[in-house]
């Protein structure tokens, strides 16, 4: 039995644990404000809030209910648009009306839920964060300017928000109903999560599985890996960082330590899907879906990460790069669970960058992606790891290029020579994302971009690219 709080009431269900939160809300609870658009995580019409206790406080995130199995919300607080309504419109709803941010209304509930998540989560609210909160919501009739104006007013109305007790402040200022203040203590009455013992189907956030196999998945009992605290953590010991395999992309985004280690972390993670998808998608899900263009895979490959796999209590650790044997062929048995990933914490002489090209900025997978980690000593390259996606059947580490760079200075001549080697290591295929030639050119540009971003004083565009007259 799955038990959670939906809006202001406790609900239980014996539906298969793989069935979807969206269907539960609409068809079991008859709450039709949560809309069905694409059912693929793309449109945001189905957005709800999920609240859970993190470090002794309620933490709310906007998520796509069309990809969220109910097992993932056991013991949590789910809020649909109906759970936000008050006697009068909330400031979020009122600003959407005042700025004509809605026409047919199909997308509106998703926008209101996402903007309310912005109110709930940001301690120092900025307009950029308000806009980021709706980057998974699509509107097909209003035009975004009016919604952006509403977002600006909402940000301004949060200027004096308390950072001690956000929920009480939002209740007091009529952003959310007063039942929110009771939720944390009510959640503690719900039995701890039982990770189902007999369920073989491993699910992280579900953002791949439910897009690929929706009809099959909703019938199944699943193992909800995000509920397993033993594999959802971020820790630092000596010079090693270890992440539980069920760490979400947003868990990384929120980690002060990771942001310190990777000062451009948020800039990099912004390239990955959208906020509601990042809130649920796990790093191991990205590795195991084995897409040659997984962004987190490219990120961690360049860090020369290793992963630990476990089956029936037996553990083994391999380099992430060795997980990939061939197209969608992994060095992993069906029931092996990835439990964690580790990498060496970059030192002050280490430089890291991630680049991605896709047709749209958000909610789009890469045509080609790449990450680079370089260690320098006395201005010479001591170690270089380059990952590349979309240029071969598997996510790749370009080891010959890395070896070539060792002992070299960073200058245009060496980078161009390294690109010659890089081009021999890849085998892109022409497909809907571009021709072979185009992908080779893209990877060259991304490779150059790494150096131009990390070492602008050493490399200039004009030196790298010969312009055609
Ligand atoms: C709208 C949308 C946009 C997206 N944009 C991007 C993008 O920009 N970049 C990108 O890289 N991806 C993107 N994706 C793909 C997806 O979000 C990522 O691949 C994500 O990291 C998958 O993680 P998950 O936890 O949701 O995987 P799930 O769907 O839960 O699982 C995927 C596979 O991994 C297995 N698995 C999960 N965890 C483990 C584990 N610990 N051990 C063993 N097996 C495991 C599952 O059994 C399944 O086979 C997007 C998806 C959607 C729907
Ligand atoms: S229905 Fe489109 S994101 Fe869920
Ligand atoms: S108001 Fe019609 S889709 Fe947004």
Explain what this protein looks like in three dimensions.
The protein is α+β, with helices and mostly antiparallel strands and 469 residues long. The chain has three domains: 2-84 and 181-226, Beta-grasp domain (Ubiquitin-like (UB roll)); 91-176, [2Fe-2S]-binding domain (DNA polymerase, domain 1), CATH 1.10.150.120; 231-463, Uridine Diphospho-n-acetylenolpyruvylglucosamine Reductase, domain 3 (2-Layer Sandwich), CATH 3.30.465.10. The protein contains 19 helices and 18 strands. It has helices at 21-28, 91-98, 108-121, 127-133, 144-157, 166-172, 183-187, 209-212, 214-217, 249-254, 256-261, 265-269, 275-278, 283-288, 295-302, 399-405, 412-425, 436-454, 461-464, and strands at residues 2-6, 9-13, 47-54, 57-64, 77-79, 201-203, 222-224, 234-237, 240-244, 306-311, 314-319, 324-326, 329-330, 337-344, 350-357, 368-377, 380-389, 396-397. It has a five-stranded mixed beta sheet. A five-stranded antiparallel beta sheet has the order 8-9-14-10-11, with no helix packed on it. Strands 15-16-17-18 form a four-stranded antiparallel beta sheet. The longest helix has 19 residues, at 436-454. It is globular. The relative contact order is 0.09. The model has no long low-confidence stretch (mean pLDDT 94). It binds flavin-adenine dinucleotide and FE2/S2 (inorganic) cluster (FES) (2 copies). One FE2/S2 (inorganic) cluster (FES) binds at residues 102-108, 139-142. Flavin-adenine dinucleotide (FAD) is lined by residues 40-42, 202-209, 211, 225, 245, 272-273, 277, 281-282, 284-286, 288-289, 294-296, 337-338, 363, 365.
């Amino acid at each position: 039995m799955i038990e959670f709080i939906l809006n202001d009431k406790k609900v239980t269900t014996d539906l298969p644990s793989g069935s979807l939160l969206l269907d539960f809300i609409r068809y079991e609870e008859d709450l039709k404000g949560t809309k069905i658009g694409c059912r693929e995580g793309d449109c945001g019409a189905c957005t709800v809030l999920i609240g859970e206790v993190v470090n002794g406080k309620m933490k709310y995130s906007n998520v796509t209910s069309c990809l969220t199995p109910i097992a993932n919300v056991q013991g949590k607080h789910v809020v649909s648009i109906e759970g936000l309504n008050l006697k009068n419109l909330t400031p979020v709803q009122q600003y959407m009306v005042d700025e004509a941010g809605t026409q047919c209304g199909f997308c509106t509930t998703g926008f209101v839920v996402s903007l309310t998540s912005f109110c709930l989560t940001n301690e120092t609210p900025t307009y950029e964060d308000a806009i980021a909160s709706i980057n998974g919501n699509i509107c097909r009739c209003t035009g975004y300017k009016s919604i952006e104006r509403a977002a600006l007013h909402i940000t301004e109305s949060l200027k004096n928000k308390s950072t001690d007790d956000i929920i009480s402040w939002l209740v007091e200022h009529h952003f959310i109903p007063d039942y929110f203040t009771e939720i944390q203590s009510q959640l503690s009455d719900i039995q701890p999560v039982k990770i189902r013992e007999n369920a073989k189907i491993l699910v992280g956030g579900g953002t791949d599985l439910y897009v690929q196999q929706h009809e099959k998945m909703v019938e199944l009992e699943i193992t909800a890996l995000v509920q397993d605290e033993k594999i959802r953590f971020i820790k630092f010991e000596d010079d090693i960082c270890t992440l539980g395999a069920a760490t979400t992309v947003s868990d990384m985004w929120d980690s002060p330590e990771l942001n310190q280690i990777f000062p451009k972390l948020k800039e990099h993670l912004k390239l990955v899907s959208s906020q509601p998808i990042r809130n649920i998608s796990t790093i191991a899900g990205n590795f195991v879906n084995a897409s040659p263009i997984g962004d987190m895979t490219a990120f961690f490959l360049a860090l020369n990460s290793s992963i630990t796999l476990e089956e029936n209590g037996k553990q083994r650790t391999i380099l992430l790069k060795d997980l990939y044997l061939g197209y969608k062929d992994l060095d992993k048995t069906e029931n092996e669970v990835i439990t964690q990933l580790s990498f060496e914490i970059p030192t002050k002489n280490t430089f890291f960058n991630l680049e991605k090209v896709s047709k749209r900025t958000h909610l789009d997978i890469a045509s080609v992606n790449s990450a680079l980690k370089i260690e320098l000593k006395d201005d010479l390259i001591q170690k270089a790891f380059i990952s590349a996606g979309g240029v071969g059947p598997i996510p790749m580490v370009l080891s010959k290029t890395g070896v070539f760079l060792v002992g070299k200075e960073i200058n245009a001549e060496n980078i161009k020579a390294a690109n010659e080697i890089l081009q021999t290591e890849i085998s892109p295929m022409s497909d809907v994302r571009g021709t072979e030639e185009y992908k080779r050119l893209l990877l060259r540009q991304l490779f150059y971009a790494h150096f131009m971003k990390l070492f602008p004083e050493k490399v200039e565009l004009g030196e790298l690219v010969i312009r055609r007259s």
